[in-house]
Amino acid sequence: MSFMEEKDMENYLGESIPKLGFGLMRLPMCGEQIDLEQTKEMVDLFMDAGFRYFDTAYVYNDGESERAAKAALVDRYPRESFYLATKLPGFSAKSKADAERMFYTSLERTGAGYFDFYLLHSLSADREKAFEDYDLWNFIAARKKEGLIRHIGFSFHDTADELDKLLTGHPEVEFVQLQINYIDWESATVQSRLCYETARRHGKPVIIMEPVKGGSLANLPSDAAKILDDLHGGSAASYAIRFAAGFDGVFMVLSGMSNLGQMKDNLSHMKDFKPLDEKERAAVDEVCAVFRSKNLIPCTACRYCTDGCPKHIDIPNLFSCMNSKYVYKSWNVKYYYDKVYTKRNGKASDCIKCGKCERSCPQHLPIRKLLEEVAAEFEKADNE
Length: 384
Description:
The chain is of the alpha/beta class. The protein folds into two domains: 3-292, Alpha-Beta Barrel (TIM Barrel), CATH 3.20.20; 304-378, no CATH class. It is 45% helix and 13% strand. The strands form two sheets. An eight-stranded parallel barrel has the order 1-4-5-6-7-8-9-10, surrounded by six helices. The protein has a two-stranded antiparallel ribbon with strand order 2-3. It starts with a helix and ends in a 6-residue tail after the last helix. Mean pLDDT is 92; it is low at 1-8.
């Protein structure tokens, strides 16, 4: 694909699809099951407002997210009225045949007939080999020729240098999905700005994930929240999403909405989207300064780390307890640690240091070391 063809695609996408995408990773739950009735209401609100892009993945909710996409969207709306994206986690496949099976399983689960956007899931330097060994680049290109995929791309969690290598080696890629939010924009670990600039240098349109950083930027510490509240211009989440949507070449911002209230809030500020103005950008910079002054664990609660944990440790919620303790000064966080998050799951001190969680973490967090700190904070009385 030539640069001009890429620009044409970008212009087409930017003109035809409103920039807010419904991420189906954090759907409303009813006990252990996805709340399909509330999900249907959310889909209806989203579609009625003129939005069309839905994002899921083979691994989300152990496949239930793709099934929910079928029940709440595909079975209820004409196929040409929406865009559906899903992803292939080649890194978790046991063989080439197993990886290819995942594609057809996603087709069956969603009942979509074809995917408008299909992504190789969560590429990074340590995961790239599996995608190459299983020849998945050629596999998805072949499915595109068959009409089962309209556009091919990948989601990415690594350095800008690694992204540059991937895009140089695979110029056929039509778009890239990156983690971009105002906290990670200048992060030396996530490298949001550098990755964005790399994608644009290669002429690739960008889809943004984690614009609210797993909900962290919707539930700000009080001193940070006051900065945005004083603007009287919307919710904390609205500033985060508008920040992400304001960059050139960004044609979609995904938001993993979990209830009707979040859906209504997002629609209220994205239906007539306006980028942040100078005063709002300055306020966001102030919020970043507040975050830098605190010792936060930058977990996005994607939960990739919990799959296969031999001690069944609820790592994201234990990290949330730690952040609540030091940022929000929550008085009852020890109760949640003891009686909720470790009641049926392992404690932080149960970690056997196998490292599987760290190999799965898109944020490259030193999870084993952090669990030691969590244990020292919440289990110290138990050991005295």
